[in-house]
Write a structure and sequence with these properties.
Layout: H1 13-26, H2 29-42, H3 45-55, E1 62-65, E2 68-72, E3 76-84, E4 101-110, E5 115-121, E6 126-132, E7 138-145, H4 156-170, E8 178-182, H5 185-193, E9 198-200, E10 217-219, H6 222-230, H7 240-264, H8 268-276, E11 280-283, E12 301-306, E13 310-314, E14 320-324, H9 326-336, E15 338-340
Parallel strand pairs: 3-8, 5-12
Antiparallel strand pairs: 1-2, 2-15, 3-4, 4-5, 6-7, 8-11, 9-10, 13-14
C-alpha cells in the first residue's frame, strides 16, 4: 500500500468511527485500521495505559497452544467491524428484528510492531451464541451461526454486544476492545463519495445486471457496488466463502481510490465524513475528542485478511454451517493477539 507524506490533515474521532463503520460493510479493512491507529498513536495516555497494564502482566488472560502458555499482549487493540443485512429505513423495532451480522471483520492493531492483522470471520461459523429473552435478559446459550447473534436483542446496542460476546467465545475468551456496526446504505454512500469505484469483476453478475459480466471492468453504480459485495445466491457457486473473496476485490479497489483522493485533497476526509455521517448504526467509540496528525499510521504494515480453516456442512435445517478448526483459531490468537508467557 502506498504511503502519504506529511501533511496538515486533521480528522476528528467522530470521523474515525463513522468511516470505520462504513468500511465494515464493504470490507475496507485497511483504511479503517489506518484511522484507528492514528487515534491510538495520538492519544498521549496510551503509553501510560500500556505501562499500567504491563505492571499487572500476571493478570492478563492466558491460553494454551502447542504445549506452551501464551498471554494477551496489552499493546494489541482489537476492533470488530460489523455489516448488517438491512437498510436504514427497514423496520427494526422490537426483538429479533434487527437483521443479521452478515459481515464480520476483526482488526488486531499492534502498536509495538506497527502492523495491522485482519481476520475475516465467515458468517456461517458455528459458535456459542447467547439467546436472549424478549426482555433482553440472558436466556440460554446455543451453538448457532455467528451471524445470528446480532438478531437477539431489542436495540442496536444489545445486538452489537451479543455479537461481540459470540466473537469472544469463538476466540476462546479473548476480549474485543472496540466495535461498530452499520447497514447496507454504507456501500452506496462510500461508492458515491469516491466517484464510483472501478473494479474488474471476478464472477458473472448478469442475472442481476446485464452490464456485470465476468471479466468486465466497470465504474460501479451504487446498485452494482451492493451487488458485488452482497450478492451470493445467483453468483458463482453461491457460497459465502466465495462472496468473502469477492469482497476483497472491492476492498482493494476502494482503498486505492480513497488513498488517491486523500493525497489529492486535504479536505477530502471532511467531504467523505459529510457523505457518510448518517449511515452509522451503533458504536462504543467515544466520538467527542479531537485527534492530531494521523499520517504516521500510514507507515504501519497492513497485512492481507486471513480466514480460519475448517469444514462446511449443511445443517438439519438446510442452512450452511462452517466449523472452524480449533487449532486454526488458537494459532491465529496466539500469533496475533498474544505472546509466550515469560
Amino acid at each position: 500500500m502506498s504511503r502519504s507524506g506529511r501533511s496538515g490533515r486533521r480528522r476528528s474521532k467522530r470521523q474515525v468511527a463513522v468511516l470505520a463503520a462504513v468500511l465494515a460493510v464493504i470490507s475496507i479493512a485497511a483504511l479503517a485500521g489506518v484511522y484507528f491507529l492514528g487515534e491510538w498513536l495520538e492519544n498521549r495516555s496510551y503509553q501510560e495505559q500500556r505501562q499500567q497494564m504491563s505492571e499487572h502482566f500476571g493478570e492478563l488472560p492466558t491460553m494454551e497452544y502447542a504445549g506452551q502458555t501464551y498471554v494477551r499482549r496489552p499493546e494489541v487493540e482489537t476492533v470488530l467491524l460489523l455489516g448488517v443485512d438491512q437498510h436504514l429505513d427497514d423496520d427494526t423495532w422490537g426483538f429479533q428484528r434487527g437483521g443479521q451480522s452478515d459481515f464480520l471483520l476483526l482488526l488486531a492493531l499492534d502498536h509495538q510492531n506497527r502492523t495491522i492483522h485482519q481476520l475475516q470471520i465467515d458468517r456461517d461459523t458455528m459458535t456459542d451464541v447467547t439467546v436472549l429473552s424478549l426482555l433482553g435478559d440472558q436466556k440460554s446459550t446455543r451453538t448457532l451461526q455467528i451471524c445470528l447473534s446480532y438478531a437477539y436483542g431489542g436495540t442496536n446496542e444489545e445486538r452489537c454486544k451479543n455479537t461481540v460476546a459470540a466473537v469472544e467465545n469463538l476466540l476462546g475468551g479473548q476480549r474485543i476492545d472496540l466495535y461498530t456496526a452499520v447497514k447496507l446504505d454504507g456501500i452506496g454512500a462510500l461508492n458515491r463519495a469516491l466517484g464510483g469505484i472501478t473494479v474488474t469483476l471476478p464472477e458473472d453478475y448478469t442475472d442481476l445486471d446485464p452490464m456485470m459480466a465476468k471479466g468486465a471492468t466497470l465504474t460501479l453504480t451504487d446498485a452494482q457496488a451492493e451487488h458485488l459485495v452482497r450478492a451470493r445466491m445467483y453468483v458463482g457457486d453461491g457460497t459465502n466463502a466465495s462472496r468473502m473473496l469477492r469482497q476483497r476485490v472491492f476492498l482493494k479497489a476502494a482503498t486505492e481510490q480513497l488513498l488517491v483522493k486523500l493525497r489529492e485533497s486535504a479536505d477530502f476526509a471532511g467531504t467523505l465524513f459529510d457523505a457518510l455521517e448518517e449511515i452509522s448504526s451503533y458504536t462504543n467509540f467515544n466520538r467527542g475528542r479531537l485527534i492530531n496528525e494521523v499520517n504516521r499510521a500510514y507507515h504501519y504494515d497492513i497485512l492481507p485478511a486471513e480466514m480460519f480453516t475448517g469444514e462446511y456442512k449443511i445443517g438439519r435445517g438446510g442452512f450452511m454451517e462452517f466449523y472452524a478448526d480449533e487449532d486454526s483459531i488458537a494459532a491465529w490468537v496466539a500469533q496475533n493477539l498474544c505472546e509466550l508467557k515469560k
